[in-house]
Amino acid sequence: MALIEIKNLTYTYPGGSKPSIDDVSFKIEKGEFVLITGPSGCGKTTLCRCFNGLVPHFYQGEIKGEIEVAGINTLEHRTCELAKHVGLVFQNPENQLFALSIEKDVAFGLENVGLSREEMRKKVDWALHQTGIYDIRERSPHEISGGQQQRVAIASVLAMEPDIIVLDEPTSFLDSLSAEKIFEVIYRLNREQGITVVLVEHRLDLTAKYANHLIVMEQGTIRLEGEPRDVLCNQETRLIGVGIPKATLLYEMLKKEDFSLGNKPPLDSEELADQILEALK
Amino acid sequence: MIEAKNVHYSYPSKIEALRGISLTIRDGEFVAIMGQNGAGKSTFVKHFNGLLKPSRGTVKVDGVETGKSSVAALARNVGFVFQNPDHQLFSESVEEEIGFALKNFGFEAKVIEDRITWALDLLSLSQYRKTSPFLLSGGERKRVALASVLAWDPKTLVLDEPTIGQDYEQKEKLRQFIMQLQTQGKTVVVVTHDVEFVAECNPRVVLMKDGKIVADGQGQQILTDPAMLELASIVLPQIAQVFAKLSVLGLPKNIIDIQEAKTVLLRAKEKRGQ
Amino acid sequence: MSVFDGLKFRRVNSLIHNLDPRIKFVYVIGVFIATLLFLQIIPLLALFVLQLPFVFLARVQRQWLRSLRGAAFLASFIFLINIATNFFVGGYTLTPEVVESAAAMTLRFVVLVESFSVFFLTTSPDHLGLALEQSRVPYEFAFAFTTAVRFVPVLAEEAQTIMDAQKARGLELEKGNLLKRIRNYIPVLIPLIVSAIRRSLELAEAMESRAWGACKRRTNLYRLCLHRGDYVLLGITVAILAGAIYTYFFVSIPTIVNLL
Hints:
Chain A is of the alpha/beta class. Helix content of chain A is 39%, strand content 21%. In chain A, the strands form two sheets. A six-stranded mixed β-sheet of chain A has the order 6-7-8-3-9-10, with helices on both faces. Chain A has a four-stranded antiparallel β-sheet with strand order 2-1-4-5, covered by helices on one side. The relative contact order of chain A is 0.15. By secondary structure, chain C is mainly α. Chain C is flat. Chains in contact: A-B, A-C, B-C. Chains A and C meet through α2, α3, α4 and α5 of A and α6, α7 and α9 of C.
């Protein structure tokens, strides 16, 4: 059975004139790395909030359809119960760290569920190591960089050992190098720990290569879905105004000019460079 | 013209943010100031309209030393759009928001009216004239903030991280808008770490690190120099990455534009064919 | 970033900093009671000197001196008021005894400031929050306290950015009469409030997502427990109190005037 299953979901925020999510259905399997993209205001963030029950429990509003996450109906269970299964990381690192030391922040969720101190210490240390911030665990949040803050946010949901980590544009405040480091951390968690990842991003040039499932949204609906390579080469994706990686674009432009590059559209510079080298050998 | 000579700046907390910066920006230039967070980019550009005054050295805007002038006077020529529009929006309607600066600068009522209409039109916001800025979407709020600065028609425009949180289409619109300002002879300074955006615009690039300028040149040169970019914690733009990996083919390396990339590669293929 | 840097606390390690805040608080209260027992200069002076080792062990001399300097104005005020009332009530004569008792009153105040400032200078906010959590204060209060400490510097920085943004649009905060000046702050206050509300919503969302309120008995990563130093401090407190009470009942304390 799928880890996340959504059927005919429609949701309108309180006071909203039209639904932010409009009759959406899809499945996410265990272990997938899912990338969700689409223009601003397309409903990506709202969808993230559905995964752990913030919609509808925190935001209220009108909801129809079915959502099941890790076998739990999110419409019937509160966010604090779902928090053990789904970890949400938000855009602004500053507003998700509330303790005065990093390790205390990482422990926040575990404290809430009432874990014993010994167990907690083990999980906190594990999460700190996984995200590479063990050495700065005693610092306070304003002593560290934005990239480090975002890693703390990831560690603090990771400590709960969730089945799924959902990240809503986690790197938009970061420079590309820090962003890349964050994506590497997430990718490793996906591969080595088998954690299912749902990543919402505009910057496909940095992220497309990690994903094995791409969802393109527009105006509250899912417009395209599938293998990243297929979706990115689909003409419709271009019309929606998604930032297709330059390597993929260049590949297509060259293909049109009868440049033989094989049939596998590249997702990053490395793949494209290899194809070109092969062609010009 | 903006001339910075050996500018040093220390915050009251004694942290030295700028350590000897000299830079001249000529009228009508388009400059991107890049570097890691904390490199001193924002601190530096805040000297252009006198929000900060150098601890040592001088900054001159059109010959006027900023240390000897008020922010209100300098701002007349140097418009500054901050990263987060929510840090400036406060009015009941978009129209009042745009009129705020015009009133502060003492324009006449008739002129204010005209300028508001002009700025709304310029950023396609006319339909929101009477709307509260707080009801608009993030992208629209960003445009209102931009309009509220453009309204007084400053000679120089400084944009602090304009692409943060913007989607592909909004970025493309912003790029076209900057190009439009360029044709009107405006000086545009963009502070950013969005390397793909800069690669598409190909402006003059100034790289900063630890309060100093480490490189200054055309985007095409700077953004294709891996050693230089690594120093400033910037990743190469994707097209440049491809060409960096094609070095064995003896192709030129300083390519950041996709059309140019295509032309060069097709020519290389032709050569092989012969 | 600026003047608000002082609000950003950093962890410091010293013998005194590492003491249990609850015991430190007991100590401060002990000293407080002891000072209330005396109105003579000599015992108060002794209490004053007794605390100097703490200041030096914690290496907070500079900040400590600054807080004393801050209290100087109030101290001289207390001194003058005491002299004045004695002067007018006591029949318009200024005796050495009057000066001495006024000085003693002032010294009592200084000792209080001294001990409280040592407490606050050497107790980090997260320690204090922890102490609150473990003293049966409801967790919500302790959490509100630490979160406030966490976000005060952030908000201060934000206020600075907003002021910059509005100044860049020609706002002159210092212009006009008093009423106008107050009105000048509206363009700063509204964005500040709006963004504080937005921030608190985001915080609430993040807290919910991390199982806030999942179970009644919350646990804690840290636990304060008493170490040797804490017992020593407790001993010192008891000794000071016992000594003070003994002195109060059984020793006749000479005044400076008598000694001379």
